[in-house]
């Protein structure tokens, strides 16, 4: 556009100087050479931008880019560190690395949290969430716990209530397993997966009829009904059920004088 414009206009003259001379004028011949040559180049860039914009409709210019379709996960794996809370993670980090990600400092009524660098793998996850797992009648007051460490022993959360809260999102009483506060069954993710035609399994470092692994499988009003829980698990549609325990050995792997058949996995 600049080279085809007739001479006589300011931009036409400048374009002619830039395209028709065999040599560039010296600074004495054209003290504004650099500035004048830059002007048409800027105009060219501006026109080119307008030309490109003219080929796009106003609707296209404002339309959002198509969202990328989220890739569905192939598997959903829930890892539970039974009894593992923030302070257990901090203690392990201090033991292993000599530092922790977050640490509470101060005195009761003036406690603050100091944040450092992530230490453990889960502290580096891009998506994180928190949940309260205490029983339906329980509670947790951090200021009270900070003042009196004995208060947390008054009504500790049982594994059945915590496991049910994690697996169903419903709070229950301490012995309740896969049931609500009234003893009514609530759906767990294993049942949802099986209903969708997928496989589900539960693997534990303790007996499979224990509260935490069983909370993802059964519905029982009492976690102490080990035989009833085991029967439900065996009769379920779970693809995999694995747990620890051998009637001939204790929890430390030492052979017993007489086998104990209280738990079988």
TrEMBL record:
Q: Know the name of this protein?
A: Alkaline phosphatase
The family annotation for this protein states: Belongs to the alkaline phosphatase family.
E.C. numbers: 3.1.3.1
In this chain, Zn(2+) is annotated as bound at 82
Names of the cofactor(s): Mg(2+); Zn(2+)
As to how many cofactors bind and how, the note says:
Binds 1 Mg(2+) ion.
Which residues does the record give as Mg(2+) binding sites? Answer: 82, 210, 212
Pfam families in UniProt = Alk_phosphatase (PF00245)
Q: Where is the segment annotated Disordered?
A: 1-31
Q: What InterPro entries would the database entry show?
A: Alkaline_phosphatase (IPR001952), Alkaline_phosphatase_core_sf (IPR017850)
